[in-house]
Specification:
heterotrimer, A mainly alpha, B mainly alpha, C mainly alpha, A: mainly alpha, B: Cytochrome C Oxidase, Chain A, two-stranded antiparallel sheet, 20 helices, globular
Chain lengths: 107, 621, 207
């Protein structure tokens, strides 16, 4: 059942500090995500040629999502190795599916 | 809360017990019984198909009924027989093999079963309510999108519900295997059946969502007027083909991998030898699972994907022969020099090797894209996939059931009857399907209702039908064996085969908490290691203490019942909007049950140490 | 040892969501489920990408889609993702009240998002007669975006019912995993939205 907690104060303090640190990173992440979103919308509004814009939009989206996964959803933390296996498994099959649907679905 | 320990009596109590059980061993029995019944129904459909094709120009059954028959035979066998039987084995064996007291999500485990059953029943209700689905088990659009009547609606709704159950079951086993292993049971000490179940659950997790989406699109097109497959509004039927096979090909491996695992355990036990090349076997299993996702378009070579796509998928398909070959050779080497015991389980396993190899060879033939234009949609394909599915999966079920029957029910299936069932089935199988290769090469297309006289197809089809009857006889003898064993055979010990893995270290059938004390695993084939050291059982990894067990629950049944009712609402609201009432009632029941589950604490109960001490020893020999 | 003692330890552990065996199972199982959801949404995206120019008689994407609304929706959902991070931060500090507050803000933002989405759909239907049935692209668009919207709705109901259920008794080791998993779900919804606004709206506008 439950692994009961450590009642000593020091590790708790350390952990609190640690999660505060983490919270700071998450706020920075959020600021970056908002920035990326602004850039993405800005590029489209500026009507840059689509040949150039589409790859950038996709890259920005991927980076944003990685931020979400690694910082907001804590995939960077310990104990997430199986989680990564499954997420990247799903992502690879998803990518394969999307490639298929953009290449060999024809008329 | 020791009431659960007390034996409940009476039929009503027993039924209630099974309706609310969250015990993986009982859920295994539920899967086994319902999967077995669907297997017999699917077999009956196969017999009707074979009787229809016994002679040219036959009209034993009408063309329309024949279409329903082939559709339901395929759908039933894959989704309603093979899948639940896989889950029956996984439920019965995996927690025991890893030394766990239960699965990770006992509640979801039971929900998975009841969803499967609800879906299966909906699908089969179609027979009595205006006609079964008739667009083939692959239900290709636009045929399936425009097929009149409600048949295909039943297909869509039934598979959607049972597919949800399968996905839930898959996640449950993934977490069980990752989180619930006994101390010392590292990944590379897991028995091959557990490994195979792990990879299979992965495939379920990633393959079934594609089917879910495909079924939704078809459902929206048929019931809510969307235009995914409606060319007039810009739709594209190829989307269904892709989604179906992105799911469908991994599905084949979902079926075959667990029986590969079972064969590995059986070969090693009955050769009294460690499995040859254990790590290569694990690697091959993972590789098959991995490659299984990159080959789906080999079902679509003639769709016209273009030479580049066809070549890529041809090469990746052929690559699967490599890990499969590794497995075949490792099984042979496991037997080589071993002290082989020819039990029924071993008989089925040995018969599997050449049979499956033939199926694999024709698979490589079919993988050659250019040649596939010739084979496509002929009986050659039918012969190929029956060689792998019957020769692999069904042989595997028979072998695994003989092997694990004592663990599930405490009695060894009668060996004489077991062998008596084997021979007609084995001979009948080859009679039925070997000749179909040639029928296919001569140009007989699959799914056709009948054929003309004097085209050289008469004799082959007759032989095939005779073989099918032999298979039916074999199956019936097996069913008789089950009844006979239940009535006449004596109880056996927990370890009738001189087993090597953890499930044989506990009594048969196991107590509901499986392991009184969690065992300490010291290597591959943990029980065998202890036996070599002169011990009779496993060394416990913990002192005797209270055991935490989950409470039974009626909610999984209710949730599935709700979807069952809502399913009919969805199907018939096309005719009259009044049927939407059923949708609301059904979804109300389901969502209400989900809310209850979410809000009401379910903390389980403890089996106390004192009760365990009274209950007798953990190690029975 | 009774359940109450186990589930309400004197001092909450640092990661209450993973302190019990059940919690660890739930954590892992839910992540795996999200792995499966990835394939589900990838299939929907694939379908949309295959059909996004099959608009039949409907206007094209760049004629229809307006970016202002999408921008506001994106900001709402992104912010709600951060607020649920704050909620989990306070869960780890065992500050139940603050956690509830941040969750309430999350729900509020999510409701705003949903409201705009419903407005957007009705706008397309009335202004352009662009419906689920009018073309293959319409079917694909409403299915993809609608599935996401359905996820948002489910997430809102889920988080709200968790908040109401536990309002009186506070945080313990039994409900902490539930909160954590619900917040993972909420982040995943945001992940999907990032791709929707990029692939459907921005790329649709670029053409």
């Amino acid at each position: 059942m439950a692994n009961n907690t450590n009642s000593a104060n020091k590790p708790v303090d350390f952990k609190k500090k640690h999660s505060k640190e983490e919270m700071k990173q998450q706020v920075i992440t959020f600021a970056l995500m908002i920035m990326f979103t602004l850039v993405a919308f800005g590029l489209v509004l500026a009507e840059v040629t689509s040949f150039f814009v589409i790859p950038i939009l996709i890259i920005l989206a991927i980076v944003q999502v990685l931020f979400q996964l690694y910082y907001f959803m804590h995939m960077k933390n310990k104990g997430h190795s199986m989680v990564s296996v499954m997420m990247f498994g799903g992502i690879s099959i998803g990518i394969l599916t999307i490639i298929t649907f953009t290449t060999i679905i024809w008329w | 809360m020791s009431t659960a320990l007390a034996q409940k009596r009476g039929l009503g109590a027993a039924i209630w017990d099974y309706l609310t059980t969250v015990d993986h061993k009982k859920i295994a029995q539920l899967y086994l019984v319902s999967g077995g019944i669907f297997f017999l129904i699917g077999g009956l459909e196969a017999m009707l198909i074979r009787i229809q094709l016994m002679q040219p120009n036959s009209d034993f059954i009408s063309a329309g009924l024949y279409n329903e028959m082939i559709t339901m035979h395929g759908t039933t066998m894959i989704f309603l027989a093979a899948m639940p039987l896989i889950f029956a084995l996984m439920n019965a064996v995996v927690p025991l093999q890893i030394g766990a007291r239960d699965v990770a999500f006992p509640f979801l485990n039971s929900l998975g079963f009841w969803l499967f059953l609800a879906g299966g029943l909906i699908l089969n209700c179609s027979w009595f309510l205006g006609g079964a689905p008739d667009a083939g088990w692959t239900a290709y659009a636009p045929l399936s999108a425009t097929s009149p009547g409600h048949g295909v609606d039943y297909y869509v709704i039934g598979l959607q519900i049972s597919g949800a159950g399968t996905l839930i079951g898959g996640i449950n086993f993934l977490v069980t295997i990752v989180n619930m292993r006994a101390p010392g049971m590292s990944y590379m000490r897991m028995p091959l059946f557990t490994w195979a179940s792990f990879v299979t659950s992965n495939l379920i997790l990633f393959a079934f969502p594609a089917l879910t989406v495909g079924l939704f699109l078809l459902m929206f097109d048929r019931m809510f007027g969307s235009a995914f497959f409606d060319v007039g509004l810009g739709g594209n039927a190829i989307i269904w083909e892709h989604l179906f096979w992105i799911f469908g090909h991994p599905e084949v491996y979902i079926l075959i991998l667990p029986v590969f695992g079972a064969f590995s355990d059986i070969f090693s036990t009955f050769s009294t030898k460690r499995l040859f090349g254990y790590s290569a076997m694990v690697f091959a299993t993972v590789l098959i699972g991995f490659l299984g996702f990159m080959v789906w378009a080999h079902h679509m070579f003639t769709t016209g994907l273009g030479p580049v796509a066809n070549s890529i998928f041809a090469v990746s398909t052929m690559a699967i022969a490599v890990p499969t070959g590794i497995k075949i050779f490792n099984w042979l080497f496991t037997m080589w020099g071993g002290k082989i015991r020819m039990t029924s389980a071993m008989l089925w396993s040995i018969a599997f090797i050449p049979t499956f190899t033939i199926g694999g060879m024709t698979g490589v033939m079919l993988a050659a894209a250019a040649a596939d234009y010739q084979y496509h949609d002929t009986y050659f394909v039918v012969a190929h996939f029956h060689y792998v599915i019957v020769g692999g999966v069904v042989f595997g079920f028979f072998a695994a059931l003989h092997y694990w029957w004592p663990k599930m029910f405490g009695k060894v299936l009668n060996e004489k009857l077991g062998k008596l069932a084997f021979w007609p089935f084995f001979i009948g199988f080859h009679l039925t399907f070997f000749i179909q290769h040639f029928l296919g090469l001569m140009g007989m297309p699959r799914r056709y209702w009948t054929y003309q006289e004097g085209q050289g197809l008469d004799l082959g089809n007759l032989i095939s039908t005779v073989g099918a009857f032999l298979m039916a006889i074999g199956t019936l003898i097996f069913v008789y064996n089950v009844i006979y064993t239940a009535m006449k055979e004596k109880k056996v010990s927990g370890d009738p085969w001189d087993g090597r893995t953890l499930e044989w270290s506990i009594p048969s059938p196991p107590p509901f908490y499986n392991f009184k004390q969690t065992p300490l695993v010291r290597g591959l084939d943990p029980l065998w290691i202890e036996k070599q050291d002169g011990k009779t059982g496993m060394t416990p990894a913990e002192p005797l203490g209270d055991i935490h067990m989950p409470n039974g629950s009626f909610l999984p049944f209710l949730m599935s019942l709700g979807l069952f009712i809502a399913g009919f609402g969805f199907i018939y609201q096309v005719d009259h909007k009044g049927w939407l009432a059923l949708v609301f009632i059904g979804m109300g029941i389901t969502l209400g049950s989900m809310l209850t589950r979410s809000l009401k604490d379910d903390l389980g109960y403890h089996v106390h140490k004192e009760e365990l001490e009274e209950g007798g020893g953990n190690h029975e020999s | 040892m009774s359940h109450d003692d186990v589930l309400n330890p004197k001092e909450m552990p640092h990661e209450p969501e993973k302190a019990t065996h059940e919690g660890q199972n739930k954590f892992l199982g839910f992540w795996f489920f999200l792995g499966g959801e990835t394939v589900l949404f990838a299939s929907l995206f694939g379908t949309y990408l295959a059909l996004n120019e099959s608009n039949a008689q409907d206007p094209t994407r760049s004629e229809m889609f307006g970016l202002e609304l999408v921008f506001i929706m994106t900001m709402l959902l992104l912010t709600s993702s951060l607020t649920s991070v704050y909620a989990m931060y306070h869960m780890k500090n065992n500050d139940f009240k603050k956690m509830q507050t941040w969750l309430a803000i999350t729900v509020f933002l999510g409701l705003g998002f949903l409201g705009f989405e419903i407005y957007e759909f009705t706008h397309y239907i009335h202004e352009y007669e662009f419906t689920f049935q009018s073309s293959a692209m319409g079917s694909a668009f409403y299915t993809l975006v609608g599935f996401h919207g359905g996820h948002v709705l489910f997430g809102l109901l889920w988080i709200t019912s968790l908040m109401l259920r536990n309002a009186k008794r506070g945080l313990n080791l039994y409900n902490a995993p539930k909160f954590y998993v619900a917040s993972l779900y909420w982040h995943f919804i945001d992940v999907v939205w990032v791709f929707i606004f990029t692939v459907v709206y921005l790329m649709g506008k670029v053409g």
